[in-house]
Specification:
By secondary structure, this protein is of the alpha/beta class. The protein has three domains: 5-45 and 91-148 and 271-356, 3-Layer(bba) Sandwich (FAD/NAD(P)-binding domain); 158-267, FAD/NAD(P)-binding domain, CATH 3.50.50.60; 369-474, FAD/NAD-linked reductase, C-terminal dimerisation domain (Enolase-like, domain 1, 2-Layer Sandwich). Helices cover 30% and strands 24% of the residues. It is built from 15 helices and 21 strands. The strands form five sheets. Strands 1, 2, 3, 4, 5, 6 and 16 form a seven-stranded mixed beta sheet that branches. The chain has a five-stranded antiparallel beta sheet with strand order 17-18-21-20-19, with helices on both faces. The protein is globular. The N and C termini lie far apart (66 Å). Disulfide bonds join 43-48. Residues 361-466 form the Pyridine nucleotide-disulphide oxidoreductase dimerisation domain. It holds the Pfam family Pyr_redox_dim.
């Protein structure tokens, strides 16, 4: 811990920073991670892991209630106290000792404190006690500071002391009522969770739900939220927010108001680059700006530098933990290759690039129903000038769905590049469709010809038979 010089300095100890450092160390380098909060980052303590734990009970109850032989055994709703206890276990009571042990075992040093860039290959760290130290990198610095919830410029919002996603996933007591601003993934997932807890939830969205996905995905989620008792208000603008005693009052354009005990803001993300020392970095013609996303090339290196990398949310390519870890593996490997004089494979889909961020990003929304997608939507393909064909399948008409639960409802859409005869996008909406996503991801990334997919026979009776339905709709090979 007394060392001040390393081959690699990583700012941020979330899953992205951990993976960059780990891959670099496996490549023969020394590495240190600088972290001002908990080792493990947002995903481990305030995002992916706790939120999915909060959502699991409602999914399990839905699955049991849908099966005639199991439904009679369900005699109650979600046990809120037990759910919050499970959340506490998943986040280890917000204690990162286990993550620190992993760093030690991986041969990665840890420096606690706030790290700021301080010129080329230098990072100044302010410790919690106010003391400072300077670390120097022989080869590279990787910024892996992630993103934070966006607070929109709405009059009175800040004074209303709203929740952001952190407060919502770390809640100790659920409120009687909750208003949610936003219609994206966080808004939809947390509306699902809190409605299952018995909270009276109102979702206020400026447009529809899950805008970047296929339209039928947001429509299905809105329908199920309403069925769960959520007041879903779409295409609704907020004029102002105020406090009225302990209540938060959301004033809507047109004069209507929504009152709630708590207010959750889930309207987007901003990069954690506001106090990072970006102004000290010489990038040539295009300077870096505090508070903005950091642009990178496909090897995750900042253009105009030979030593600075930005990995994960902070580069704004795909704000997803699994994509950040994907980038991190490529970044750690290429940093090690460049440092040791190894060969750099920066071809498309090469070992040292993050190509999939452009065209094959998978994502799951853990709502009721689940939404899973990869690649391009129909609109994205059209906007990109692709001669695309769309294939829609009613999942309820597949034999495997009938054994899953009576009345199973869902939709699967394939987007096919007609010129290449290959899948370029897929969206699944229905119960437990998340487990179907990886097959589509492999087909998109591998550019598997549809003619070859005729020989990838789906097991019967499973919902994966939808692949055969897609192929039949497309037409047999000549």
């Amino acid at each position: 811990m007394d060392a001040t010089e390393y081959d690699l300095i990583v700012i941020g100890a979330g899953p992205v920073g951990e993976n960059v450092a780990d891959r670099a160390v496996q490549g023969g380098l020394t590495a240190v991670i600088v972290e001002s909060e908990l080792v493990g980052g947002e995903c481990s303590y305030w995002a992916c892991m706790p939120s999915k734990t909060l959502l699991r009970p409602v999914a399990a109850l839905r699955a049991a209630r849908a099966v005639p032989g199991a439904a009679p055994a369900v005699t109650g709703g979600v046990d809120v106290a037990a759910t919050l206890h499970a959340r506490d276990r998943i986040v280890h009571e917000w204690n990162d000792a286990g993550q620190v042990d992993w760093l030690n075992g991986a041969g990665i040093d840890l420096v606690r404190g706030h790290g700021r860039l301080d010129g080329e290959r230098r990072v100044r760290v302010e410790a919690p006690d106010g003391t400072e130290r300077v670390l120097t990198a022989r080869h590279a610095v990787a910024v892996c500071t992630g993103s934070a919830a966006l607070l929109p410029d709405i009059p009175g919002l800040l004074d209303a002391e709203p929740w952001m996603s952190r407060e919502a996933t770390a809640v100790a007591e659920v409120p009687a009522s909750l208003a949610i601003l936003g219609g994206g993934v966080v808004a939809c997932e947390l509306a699902t969770a809190f409605a299952s807890f018995g909270t009276r939830v109102t979702v206020i969205a400026r447009s529809g739900l899950l805008g970047p996905f296929e339209p039928f995905a947001g429509e299905a989620v809105a329908q199920e939220l309403r069925a769960a008792g959520v007041d879903v208000r779409l295409h609704t603008d907020v004029q102002a927010v105020r406090r009225d005693g302990a209540a938060r009052v959301v004033e809507l354009k047109g004069g209507d108001e929504v009152r709630a005990d708590e207010l959750l803001v889930a309207t987007g993300r901003v990069p954690r680059t506001g106090d990072l020392g970006l102004e000290t970095v010489d990038t040539g013609a295009t300077p870096l700006t505090a508070g903005e996303w950091i642009g990178v090339d496909d090897t995750l290196r900042v253009p105009g530098t030979s030593w600075l990398y930005a990995v994960g949310d902070v580069n704004h390519r795909a704000l997803l933990t699994h994509q950040g870890k994907y980038q991190a593996r490529a970044a750690g490997d290429v940093i090690a290759a460049r440092a040791t004089g190894g060969e750099v494979d920066d071809r498309p889909w090469g070992a040292h690039v993050a190509t999939a961020d452009h065209s094959a990003v998978p994502q799951v929304v853990f709502t009721e129903p689940q939404v899973a997608s990869v690649g391009l939507t129909q609109k994205q393909a059209q906007d990109a000038g692709v001669r695309a064909r769309t294939l829609d399948v009613d999942l309820g008409g597949i034999a495997g769905a009938a054994t899953h639960a009576p009345g199973y409802a869902g939709t699967a859409r394939a987007v096919v590049d007609e010129d290449r005869g290959a899948l370029i996008g897929a969206t699944f909406v229905g119960a437990d469709v998340a487990e179907m996503l990886q097959a589509a991801t492999i087909a998109v990334v591998g550019e598997v010809p549809l003619d070859r997919l005729w020989h990838a026979v789906p097991a019967y009776p499973t919902i994966s038979e939808l692949w055969l339905r897609w192929l039949e709709a497309y037409g047999r090979p000549s």
